[in-house]
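note to self: the first set is below, dont mix up w the second
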Amino acid sequence: MHDLDWNALKFILKVAESGSTAKAARSLGVNATTVMRRITAFEHAFGTVLFRKKQSGYETTLECDALVEQVRRMEDLARTIHDDVLHSDLIMRGTISVSTVDSVMISVLGPCFESFARVYPTIDVDISMSTDRVNLNRKDADVAIRATRKPPDNVKAIRLSGLAFCIFGAIDRAEVFRRTSFSDLAWIGPGGALKNAPINEWMKDNIQPKSIRLTADTFQSARALAEAGAGAVILPCCLGDTSPGLARLSEPLGEMDTELWIMIAADLDQSPRVNLFVEHVQKAVREQSALLEGKKPRPQTD
């Protein structure tokens, strides 16, 4: 029993449809000699004759007609598998690991992730919150959502929105803060990983070290300190403007503007479930771009 040469079936089908080895060769990207060699090898292996040479080209035999009919059924079946299986819920299962940061998780991503889980209940999302640098190609995560001015070159990166920063203070002390020069305010400064963020450079240029009474290593904890009245703080607008306990003390600080990106591990940029997730996040985040870019502050009450 001979093994079936599946690739030879493509050559047979093309010659049967066109009646020409030259036309078949052009459509397959090979030369006519290769086409005839593969067909002849198939005929010898299975002891049959598939074509008769005529002046007008190649005419199929009854054996060839029967074979071509089966090959076409195979093509239909392959197309069905592609359309109805590979793009069905069977592949939309599994887990996507996502790394993000507290500021956008609290203000924007929570509802986005909830709606994704509701629409695609067979896909699990494993979320980790960290300000540490994440290496997607080392499998630290499948997807990362990060604020950066320049995403890494070795991953697929899609810009979601701008990200603006303002100075905030406790709402019940906002008027006092506004009447006080920045240099005379008590400040909550960046600690830990936030020391590598643009906020640290701005603080060095504008605030005396003695004015920094407390430091925090996440924007979420810095916001909590500011809500408690510990001092003025620089926060992403999306985090400060969504706090009922904070008021803006400045317009967005343009020199601190950055961007929010979603980044995908290089070997996953063709994954259907990852692409579904990315598209869902893109749409949800872009609907909140005014908040992220500091253009939609929460109305302040007197």
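second set (the one i keep forgetting abt)
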Amino acid sequence: MCRVKITFLFFVVCFAVSCSTLDVYEKTSSFQKHEWMANDTVRCSFKIQDTASLYNIFVVVRHSDAYRYSNMWLNVATKAPNDTFIYQQIELKLADNSKGWLGTGIDDIFAQRIRITRYPVQLKMGEYQFQVAHIMREDPLLSVLNAGIRVEKVNP
């Protein structure tokens, strides 16, 4: 009897989880030999259906402990539906002297999710395009595993 209840509960939980919507879009690109070339632009696009919600937009970067700098400068281009690209230069703070690497890490790999919108933003319906390229002086930029964009719906 107890086994039947546990099995039933398991299926109910699985059904409830499978019916919920995933309100996160994320796409990253990996770099061969963990070297990000300056002309290797990460491109991604997302379709927005829910225009009533607010969203946070993040840059996602994974790097190894061998990354030589405490920051990373990026050129991020955003194109809203039926619009032109808007370019912004962004400095990502990856480490500081008191805490070391600021991202989450396992062994010698660190992942950063850094919000690039100051406040949650309302997005128009349609397809958004993003382009991310590093603008560091070092080319290729060594010890970077991947980079991309993450868009999260803000829960009320």
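remember for set 2: The longest strand covers residues 54-64.
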